[in-house]
Amino acid sequence: MSPEAKLSHQSSIPLPDEPLIVIGPGKSWIAVSPRDLWPYRELFYFLIWRDLKLRYKQTVLGAGWVIMQPLLTTLIFTVFLGKLVRVPSDNVPYPLFAYAGLLPWTFFASAVTYSGNSLIGSSHLITKVYFPRVIIPGAAIGARLVDFAVAFTLLLGLMVIYGIKPTWSLVALPLLILLLTLLTLGLGMWSAALNVKYRDIGIALPVLIQLWMFVSPVVYPASLVPAKWRWIYALNPMVGIIEGFRASVFGLQAEFQPLVISTIVTLGLLIYSAYIFKRMEKDFADLV
Description:
- The protein is globular, with a radius of gyration of 23 Å.
- The mean pLDDT is 85.
- By secondary structure, it is mainly alpha-helical.
- The chain has 14 helices and no strands.
- It has one domain (32-269).
C-alpha cells in the first residue's frame, strides 16, 4: 500500500469519544511532593534563569534595579516618616530600620504578584506538555529570592556604614527567610490557581498587596500598635516575620508570640493552598 493510501486509510478511522490516555497530575492532594518534583528540577532552574534574563534584558543597570527599588523607597520614608513625623525605630537608625522592613516586604510583594500571574503568562507551556504546574509559581518565587539575596548585600553595607555589628541572633535569619518563602509560596499557589479561573484576582492582587503593607510593620515598629489590639494585629503573618527579621539582623529582643502565630498561619495557608492547587490543576490547560 502506497504512503498516500495509508494516510487516507488512517484518516478514515473514527476517533474515540474519550481519550485513550490522559496525562495529568497524580491523585495525591499534596501539590508539593519532592519525589514528583525532583525529575523536573532542570525545568525549575531553566524557568528561574529565563525569568531573570527577560527582566534584565537590554537594561543599563541590570540587577542594580533590585537594589534601587527598596533603596529609593527607604529614602522617601526616611525623609517623611523618619525626619518629619519622627516615627520611632527601636533605637536603630531609621534608614536601616526602614530598609530592613522593606527588604522582606519587597520580596514578598513582588513574588506574590508575579507568581499569581505566572500560570497565565506560561499558557504556552501548560497547553503543550504536562509537568507539575506548581513549578511555575515556584520558579517565579525562586527568581525573586535571587533578587532578595542581591538586595541583602546592601543591607550589610549599610550596617557597616552605621557601625552596627552582627550578633549571634543572625543564625535565626535562614529560618525566617524560609518561613517568608513558605508564606509567599502558599499565597502564590492559591492566587495563581484562582487567577486561572477568575482573572479578577490578577487585577486585585497588586492593590491588596499595597494595602497589606500599611497593616504590616514595614516602616513603623509593631510597638506602635496598642497592646490590647496587638494579638489581632499579630494574625497578619508578616508581622512576626518582619519583626523577627529585624531582631535577627540588629540583635534586638524578638517577641515569641507573633513568630508562633506567623508559623501557624503560614503552615495552614500552605496546606490549604496545596489542596486548592491540586484540585484545580487538571483544568488549567482548558482554562488558561
